[in-house]
């Protein structure tokens, strides 16, 4: 080998190593979590309390009188938790809350497994496997502790130490910091992947989560949240690809059962919401139409902007 070629080889190896190092550093950074698991539950409880107390922005659909609806969704959550693939399946409360807002197609999870789902999203979806896919995605955010991983990156060490010591005031402040926090693209992709991993153990179509994105894509308009989230087309491809790669055998969509659940929803009177409630955020530049279709995301961030709204 000539010296010149050798130089190129060394340069290539160096660049490769550097690239790999950056990649693994980035990965390590994404996965670093300085919060103990118990604080995921503690923070989740705090945020849950704030949301429940804010009836104006988060009109909770009461469990009383809607037992069948809650039972239906909880049964799907239990089916996912029983796959043996969900971390902290037995440690987190995994509490479902339905928000009675037919204009918002969204779902999100707090740390520790408090999951919120909007009647607007339940109405938007067509089948149980799609809902299971969305729930799997939310469960994955909590089980993979994405919120406290994000928090680890933004709060100072002193705050972390105080929170670890159980300082209630600090925990409250951290819970507030959680509001407005968004997941990284890597975490979104990971939640999509885990949704498939979970559903692959059930009789559902394991790519249920891609159903939501296919529907959004079919609508034609491109929601503003695309700017901060992985592209829906890529997500469909990645979710469907994972299902194929894993050789998942499930093929049930339970459309009839889902239609029955939707008929229950139709009987529920929607609350009279202030007009601005139908513009749930995402982006200052978003149009009204766009903001009606936020992602089945995932952090509290979409709704949090409503929470922190100055009035
Ligand atoms: Zn998400």
Summed up, the domain count is 1
Number of strands: 3
Q: What is the radius of gyration computed over CA atoms, rounded to a whole number of angstroms?
A: 21 Å
Any idea what the shape is? globular
Q: Helicity level, as a percent range?
A: 55-70%
Q: Total helix count? A: 14
How many strands, what sense, and barrel or not for the largest sheet? 3 strands, mixed
Class by helix and strand content?
A: mainly alpha
Distance between the termini: 72 Å
- Reading the helices and strands in chain order gives HHHEEEHHHHHHHHHHH
What binds here, in terms of ligands, is: zinc ion
Strand numbers in spatial order across the main sheet? 1-3-2
pLDDT averaged residue by residue: 79
Sheet-strand content, in percent, reads under 5%
Residue runs with pLDDT of under 50 for 5 or more positions: 1-22, 276-296, 298-311
Short description:
The chain is built from 14 helices and 3 strands.
Question: What topology emerges from the helices and strands here?
Answer:
Elements: H1 3-31, H2 37-53, H3 67-81, E1 95-99, E2 107-109, E3 114-118, H4 119-124, H5 128-143, H6 146-154, H7 157-164, H8 168-178, H9 185-199, H10 208-218, H11 232-246, H12 255-266, H13 288-291, H14 301-307
Parallel strand pairs: 1-3
Antiparallel strand pairs: 2-3
The protein binds zinc ion.
Zinc ion (ZN) binds at residues 137, 141, 183, 188, 191, 297-298.
């Amino acid at each position: 080998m000539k010296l010149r070629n050798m130089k190129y080889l060394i340069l290539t190896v160096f660049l490769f190593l550097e690239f790999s190092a950056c990649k693994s550093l980035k990965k390590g950074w994404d996965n670093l979590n300085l919060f103990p698991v118990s604080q995921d539950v503690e923070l989740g409880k705090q945020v849950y309390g704030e949301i429940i107390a804010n009836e104006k922005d988060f009109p909770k659909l009461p469990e009383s009188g809607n037992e069948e609806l809650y039972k239906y969704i909880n049964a799907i959550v239990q089916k996912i938790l029983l796959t043996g693939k969900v971390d902290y399946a037995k440690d987190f409360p995994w509490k479902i809350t339905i928000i009675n807002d037919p204009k918002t197609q969204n779902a999100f999870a707090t740390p520790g497994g408090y999951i919120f789902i909007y009647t607007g999203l339940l109405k938007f979806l067509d089948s149980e496997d799609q809902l299971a896919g969305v729930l799997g995605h939310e469960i994955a955010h909590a089980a993979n502790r994405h919120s406290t991983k994000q928090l680890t990156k933004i709060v100072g060490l002193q705050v972390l130490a105080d929170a670890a010591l159980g300082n209630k005031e600090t925990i409250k402040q951290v819970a507030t910091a959680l509001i407005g926090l968004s997941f990284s693209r890597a975490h979104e992709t990971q939640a999509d992947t885990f949704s498939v991993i979970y559903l692959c153990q059930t009789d559902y179509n394991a790519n249920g989560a891609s159903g939501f994105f296919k529907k959004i894509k079919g609508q034609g308009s491109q929601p503003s949240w695309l700017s901060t989230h992985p592209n829906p087309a890529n997500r469909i491809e990645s979710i469907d690809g994972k299902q194929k790669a894993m050789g998942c055998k499930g093929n049930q969509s339970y459309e009839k059962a889902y239609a029955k659940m939707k008929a229950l929803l139709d009987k529920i009177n929607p609350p009279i919401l202030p007009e601005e409630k139908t513009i749930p955020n995402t982006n200052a530049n978003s149009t009204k139409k766009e903001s009606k279709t936020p992602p089945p995301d995932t952090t509290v961030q979409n709704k949090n902007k409503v929470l922190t709204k100055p009035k």
